[in-house]
Amino acid sequence: MRLWLAPFLLSGEHLMRLPFLFLLLFLPPTGAGTLAAEAYESIRVPHTRDLQADAALARKRGVPLLIMFSLEDCPYCMVVREEFLDPMLRNRDYDSKVLMRILKMDGGYVTDFDGRRVDADTLAVRYGASVAPTVVLLDYGGEPLSERLLGITTPDFYGGYLDATIDESRQRLRERLAFRE
Questions:
Q1: Cβ pair 127, 118 in contact under 8 A
Q2: Which of 24, 133, 135, 139 is at a distance of 20 to 30 A from 181, taking alpha carbons?
Q3: Is residue 113 within 8 Å of 141, Cβ to Cβ?
Q4: Which residues contact 117 (CB under 8 A, 6 or more apart)?
């Protein structure tokens, strides 16, 4: 006797495999796939403590430096990080576009672009980060390459604004580097 299921003809031999297939379909994922997913999810934009080192890495890659000014328990900062920056970091296409870091405004001291230690609040004032989150894109000396993104008012459009700001910053960085040559 043969049983038709979906478009497949199942014989007695195939019917014996059904319990195994059923288990595969309905058991929660485990093993290497889960580990890979967990490793993927653990890729997050790092916090910065040394802007000079970050600028050197950005220069080596030939990309602008993106800094998100953040506060510890800021829900809007978490949205920008989890919905936009972290997924961008996981997308290898952005490796050639931007180097991303998070700077906690309530995080103490950071090494500035010139190697001196500076309070994070001083940097926030310098870059006009009056609200959190604020995203700035900088050249290797810490000079802004575009308008900063203050807060997040429209999440539906934020990714587009962020991409446009990155593209603008990349273009301005290329122009600055060509002018210096």
A1: no
A2: 135
A3: yes
A4: 109, 110, 111
* Cα 174 from Cα 64, distance rounded (Å): 10
Instruction: Determine the 3-state secondary structure of 116 from DSSP.
Output: coil
Write down the residue that tokens 């972290």 correspond to: 86
Q: What token pair was written down for 7? A: 């478009």
Query: Span 162-175, mean pLDDT?
Result: 96
* pLDDT per residue as tens digits for the range 120-154: 999 999 999 999 999 999 999 999 999 999 999 88
* Per-residue model confidence as pLDDT tens digits over 73-126: 999 999 999 999 999 999 999 999 999 999 999 879 999 999 999 999 999 999
Q: How far is it, in rounded angstroms, from Cα 179 to Cα 171?
A: 12
Place of tokens 């122009």: 175
Task: For residue 33, give Cα distances in angstroms to 40, 80, 150.
Answer: 11, 27, 38
The Cα 63–Cα 106 span in angstroms is 27
Q: Among residues 43, 26, 66, 93, which one has the least CA distance to residue 148?
A: 66
Nearest-5° angle of CA 97, CA 110, CA 99?
Answer: 5
> Where do the domains of the chain lie, and which CATH numbers do they carry?
45-180 (3.40.30.10)
Burial class of residue 50, CB neighbours in 10 A (0-12, 13-18, 19+):
middle
pTM of the model: 0.78
